[in-house]
Design a protein that fits this description.
The complex is a heterodimer of chains A (119) and B (239).
Chain A lengths: L9 E3 L4 E7 L4 E3 L2 E7 L4 E4 L4 E13 L2 E3 L2 E9 L4 E3 L2 E8 L4 E8 L2 H6 L2
Parallel strand pairs in A: 1-3, 2-4, 3-5, 4-6, 5-6, 6-7, 6-8, 7-9, 8-10, 9-11, 10-11
Chain B lengths: L1 H11 L16 E5 L1 H10 L6 E4 L5 H9 L3 E4 L2 H4 L6 E3 L5 E3 L1 H7 L8 E7 L1 H4 L2 H14 E12 L10 E7 L2 E6 L16 H5 L9 H7 L5 E6 L4 E7 L1
Parallel strand pairs in B: 2-3, 2-6, 6-7
Antiparallel strand pairs in B: 1-9, 4-5, 7-11, 8-9, 10-11
Helix pairs in contact in B: 5-7
The chains are: A mainly beta (119), B alpha/beta (239).
Chain lengths: 119, 239
């Protein structure tokens, strides 16, 4: 199950390996390997099914279908799809986790609206 | 305690001949009342965010439940972690065991007195013998003084094929139990070796009697047993 790709989306293909700091001002789709840090402040990151990311991530939104090791800070939302394997702490306002996703780490929901709504 | 439980392990260990595991099974869901969970429920309304450690399989339901109440939840699946091939070693007698030092170097890495609540579920019944006591020792240290740990133990009526469940909190004292099924993507470890335990499903390793349980938690300040009808004892311990 691949994420829909558009012309406005920067892509890192599955044969690409990057080590270092990644930052940008557009949405990013990673299906290859990235090691270091990823900073997309107001944009979204998608880790594709073949993606293997070992990096701290700062983004507006994050969708994980592959493997991600590192702390995540997402100002809007995080989605862990069923094939996701995530090791690291997650700080975000909203999170959705599909059955089958694996998470080792903390989930910290900072949105005040969430707490007020309760469950 | 290790030597005592060793005999129980002998009863339950062995191959489970898992050809049926080639085909993923439909996950069954059951609900059960949990007195232990009911005792903990008053904590969930705390205005102060709690730190909760869930040691079962990643549960979206539990994460939603706790974050919805404004708490911080930590998720760590120790059963899956215990299947890492690099943990396998031999003791002085040449018996294959899991290396608890390596295990604790990779897992449960938290500051002392970090958690208000630890949800242990049925971990101790399915975890390899060599890891049980070291893990409980680590859990004691990461719990805050006064913090609580909830664990489930099978009674002697349970057989070795008693299914291992994931537990989802769906109410104040109600759990949804979902049989753990293999995950195709979790079958291979970092070295490429197949994780037999996952392919076959987790097997009950032993049955603790009440005295074993008391010994297991002897460093804790108090222990409370709840008997259930489904061959499970619930135990709530306070550090």
């Amino acid at each position: 199950m691949s994420a829909p790709l558009s012309a406005d989306l920067a892509q890192i293909g599955k044969s690409v390996v990057i080590k270092g700091e990644l930052s940008g001002s557009e949405d990013l789709y990673v299906d290859g390997q990235v090691e270091g840090s990823i900073s997309l402040k107001n944009y979204s990151l998608t880790v594709g099914p073949n993606g293997q990311v070992k990096a701290s991530v700062e983004a507006k939104g994050l969708v994980v279908q592959g493997k991600l090791e590192g702390n995540i800070q997402a100002s809007d939302r995080v989605e862990l799809r069923k094939s996701a394997v995530v090791t690291g702490d997650i700080a975000t306002q909203r999170i959705s986790i599909e059955e089958g996703a694996y998470l080792k780490g903390k989930v910290d929901i900072s949105g005040k609206a969430e707490k007020a709504a309760g469950k | 305690m290790a030597s005592v439980t060793h005999n129980f392990m002998k009863l339950f260990r062995g191959s489970s001949g898992g050809s049926a595991a080639e085909t993923p099974q439909v996950s069954q869901k059951l609900t059960r009342r949990s007195s232990g969970l009911g005792e903990l429920a008053r904590l969930w309304e705390s205005e102060t965010p709690l730190c909760i450690l869930d040691l079962g399989s990643t549960s979206p339901t539990n994460i939603t439940f706790f974050t919805g109440h404004g708490h911080k939840i930590y998720s760590e699946d120790l059963l899956v972690a215990s299947t890492e091939p690099h943990l396998v070693t031999k003791d002085e007698q040449g018996t294959v065991v899991l290396d608890s030092r390596k295990f604790l170097a990779d897992n449960l890495l938290y500051p002392a007195a970090q958690f208000d609540v630890v949800l242990c579920w049925n971990l101790a019944d399915y975890l390899d013998e060599s890891l049980v006591r070291p893990v409980m020792g680590r859990l004691w240290s990461v719990l805050k003084p006064g913090g609580m740990l909830l664990a489930f133990f099978h009674t002697k009526d349970a057989g070795p094929d008693s299914p291992c469940y994931r537990f989802h909190i769906i109410g104040k004292d109600t759990l949804e139990m979902q049989k753990i099924v293999m995950r195709r993507e979790a079958r291979r470890g970092p070295t490429g070796a197949i994780h037999t335990a996952i392919i076959d499903g987790f097997r009950l390793q032993r049955v603790f009697n009440n005295r074993h349980i008391e010994t297991l938690f002897r460093d804790f300040a108090s222990i409370k047993f709840f008997l259930a009808r489904d061959n499970v004892r619930e135990v709530l311990v306070v550090r």
